[in-house]
Amino acid sequence: MPASEAQRRASKKWNDNNKERCTKIKSEWVANNREKHNERCRLLMKRRYDLLAEFKIFRLILLDL
User: Fold this and answer.
1) How many C-beta atoms surround the C-beta of residue 63 within 10 A?
2) What is the mean pLDDT of residues 25-38?
3) Domain boundaries, given as residue ranges, for the chain
4) DSSP the chain
5) pTM here?
6) Taking the chain, what is the end-to-end CA distance rounded to the nearest angstrom?
């Protein structure tokens, strides 16, 4: 569920008031989830590569006609 405008403003205010703590929390999250994030990126890049290869094959088929 998306955050409402009031929630966004409150989050921004908290982040601005607790800049050091916010930076620490974010860096810890990145350190703990780096492998998961890298795996997700790898899958998305592979899917994109496969699609581009498939489009190239279709393009060649259409140009031969």
Assistant:
1) 7
2) 93
3) 21-64
4) -PPPHHHHHHHHHHHHHTHHHHHHHHHHHHHHHHHHHHHHHHHHHHHHHHHHHHHHHHHHHHHH-
5) 0.54
6) 49
